[in-house]
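Dear Dr. V.,

Thank you for agreeing to look over these. As mentioned in my earlier message, I'm a first-year student in the group and I'm still getting used to reading structure tokens, so any feedback on how I've presented them would be very welcome. I ran two proteins. I've put each sequence directly above its structure. The first is here:
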Amino acid sequence: MRPHEHEAVAVAIIRHKTMGRDAIACARRFVRFKAAKAKSLGERGAALVEFGLLAPVLLLILLGTAQFGLTLNQFVTLTNAVSIGGLQFALSRSDTTPYTDAVNAVKNAAPSLKPASLTITLSVNGANCGTDAACMAALTNNVGQPSQVTATYPCNLQVMWYNFAPACNLTSQVTERVQ
């Protein structure tokens, strides 16, 4: 054998041993990969189960927040409408239809609320007046005294088939001096 051939044989032997080790290492990596893949599939299933348990709670929070926002909007609308109706009522001393004008002012200022569901009461100096004639007499005889407009509207706090406040009513009241 020539010297170069001897080196080539040695290199071939080393390469053969190295290939054997590489094949074993590759097989080990494949087994580890299979185990890791099986583990990740189990983890994905656990995440799906956790999401299934938490999704109704998250949905309840989301829908509850939206429903509370709608109810708060109704309360702000009612308060603004009562303020407008109270001002109209306090300035209606020389009007022939003060009750009707004040009630219509409240209903017109709250277009997003159902007018049939509004309960509006008017009073002058603590005495309720429910007709135009009674309110006109009370306003004329009580200049400078307090006039009061109160409105009540039913609210709905039902979220996902559960009513959190079954007897909920929004109430707003404004007091103005009769002009």
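The second protein is here, in the same arrangement:
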Amino acid sequence: MPGGPTVPNSSPDSDPLRELLVDASKVDRQAIADALKERVAIDPSSGRLVLLPAYQALDARRKVLAILLARKAAVLLEVVDTEALANREIAELSGLASGTAAPSVRSLKELRLVDQDENRAYFIANARLFDAIRFMTVGGAS
């Protein structure tokens, strides 16, 4: 039989694979909120990112990830329309000098933690979300 044997008289509720079903949007939202807590907040009326005290303790690459992650959150909250940010915007929002922000973004792209759109603006792809969060909050390659 393809897929292996079936269990007679088993109800769908007793299927152990059902434990694997989760609402991905809720998981993503919780993971983003946990990662940004005490680091970056979002002004609900303007979408402006507010850098909180714990943000200052991050190194340059983690600051860039925090900014891109906060921008993703702002899009999910429907406070802003576009997720991707150009190098110049990342530098402005992060408080980093452009000579620090640009190499940090390039490094994150090489690590495949951020991606670029057709306009060469940067964003965190959904498929890399948990890797980016782990790098930002726990650590990663230095």
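From my reading of the second output: The domain at 24-137 is CATH 1.10.10.10 (Arc Repressor Mutant, subunit A). Helices lie at 24-36, 60-76, 87-94, 98-110, 129-137. Does that match how you would interpret it?

Kind regards,
E.
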